[in-house]
Amino acid sequence: MKPIKKFEFPAELRPLFEKAKRLEWLTLIYLAITVVIMYLTMGNSQAMKTAWYEDLLSMTPSVAFLISSRIVAKPANGEFPYGYHKAVSIAYLCSSLALFAVGSFLVIDSGITLIKGDRPTIGTVIIFGHQIWLGYLMMIALIWGSVPAVFLGRAKLPIAKKLHSKNLYTDAEMQKADWMTGFAAILGITGIGFGWWWADAAAASIISLDVIHDGFKNLKQALYDLIDQIPKTVDNQKTDPIIKHIEDYLQQKTWVKTAEIRLREDGHIYFGEAFVVPVSSVNLIQAMEDTRQEIENMHWHLHEFIITLVSDLPQQEA
Amino acid sequence: MRLLFLLLLMVLLTSACDNFPRDPDETLTKIKNNTLLVGYTENPPWVVKTKAEPTGLEVELIKNFAKTQGAKISWVNDTEQDLFQKLEKRELYLVIGGFTDKNTWKTKISFTRPYVKHQKEKHVMAVLKGENAFIVALETFLHQQTSHLNALPASYEAN
After folding, report:
1. pLDDT in tens, A45-104
2. pLDDT in tens, A212-252
3. Which helix (H) or strand (E) holds A213?
4. What is the ipTM of this complex?
5. CB count, 10 Å around CB of A93?
6. List of chain A residues whose C-beta atoms are within 8 Å of the C-beta of residue B20
7. What domains lie within chain A, and their CATH numbers?
8. Segments making up each domain of chain B, as ranges
9. How far apart are the first and last CA of chain A?
10. For B53-122, what is the HEC assignment?
11. What is the Cα–Cα distance from A204 to A216, expressed in whole angstroms?
């Protein structure tokens, strides 16, 4: 077996990768504090419970990112000739599956609460000798749980795009949307305060629908990635324009009669091959080597791009 | 920033209302200058059954609470099981009987915050689920009694 070269990020992106890791550690610490605060103030509010599960689960992408960033760093070897890049895709699958499962659980749970007409009781607590309604504490916990998250998410988004990290991107998008969860839960608790017992469970249902939506979208993409769908951009899931670019580039080469390419995404890295029908056999090996190098230089994503000579391009079956 | 401001404003606005939280069924309003429906089950010294009105530590507390609301009490005596079922059907406002916070009905019934600790047991009262204004009023009353409550169980046991 010929293992691939050790590579993860080019030199100019490595500081950004380190920054991403630091942001993820910061996220984990922040979420850990949030989860404790929310748990202490939860009482028996359905919306608080939903927001709590959401916060607990939103640790998954950060944990998955940090674990996978250790695994992918290992060099390829005889046992794993393609390296450990798919660990990133597996991390992405875990995050999205967790999100989807919890969203489904919560929508059922709060639905049942609504149907059964279960009325949330929120009493008082004593803090430093003062008695306060627990609902106010819940609101403060929710603000702490949502406002800083928005800023963390905003900091991560551009980095995720540059590093081509879908896991990080999902994480960032979710956090950016966290304020909606927090806001809905605050409305639910305010509703209880006004004597509308159903407001809380209704808010919880809306939050969980949002969680399911995020979970499903990402679960689908994670599975597609593992079945080697053609590379998609991180942000809007469009076919990566680099594919067209390489095709055009190959067609312009004088030694190439006709060519077609195939690309797949392993974590941050693209592997691929070109099937080329050459014009003649003169200087063929040199031309192939040069072209291959030029293509790999186009973008740091492109790695181990292999050119295969064929006499005929296969006709694509309809 | 705008969002943060909006949230803070909302919390401030809600805190500004003095009748917050409110009851879905207006329980506290119904009780005021009217009748407080209380279920009791015997468990001395908390609740002691007599031929006339019940007596005991919790009975005295509830009588005093009713006074603050200008309400008279209508007592209902039954077993713990039946009383909790009545509370679940919202036929009672309050059930007493020396319950602790380890009560197994916790999932179906709401209890107040523990108001007194006696022999390592935290004592609570069972209340109508979701009537938050009523619960806050009762807990506030119990909290005000804290200072002399701690000495009470011992004095009742001495009798």
Report:
1. 888 888 888 888 888 889 999 999 999 888 888 898 888 888 888 888 988 888 888 889
2. 988 898 899 889 889 998 888 887 678 999 999 999 999 99
3. helix A198-226
4. 0.79
5. 20
6. 133, 193-194
7. 14-226 (1.20.1510.10), 242-309 (3.30.70.1350)
8. 19-149
9. 35
10. CCECHHHHHHHHHHHHCCCEEEEEECCHHHHHHHHHCCCCCEEEEEEECCCHHHHCCEECCCCEEECCEE
11. 18
Q: How far is A316 from chain B (nearest CA, A)?
A: 54
**Selection from A16, A19, A14, A24 nearest residue A152 by Cα:** A24
Q: pTM for the full model?
A: 0.81
Task: Using pLDDT thresholds of 50, 70 and 90, give the confidence band for residue A12.
Answer: confident
- CATH level 2 (architecture), domain B19-149: 3-Layer(aba) Sandwich (3.40)
For A228, A275, A314, the CA distances from A317, given in Å and listed in that order, are 19, 17, 9
Query: What residue in B sits closest to A136 (Cα-Cα)?
Result: B11
Tell me the C-alpha distance between A58 and A36, whole Å: 14
CA–CA dist B140, B145 (Å, integer): 9
CB B115 within 8 A of CB B46: no
Taking CA–CA distances from A184, the nearest residue in chain B reads B7
- The helix/strand count (H/E) of chain A reads as 10, 5
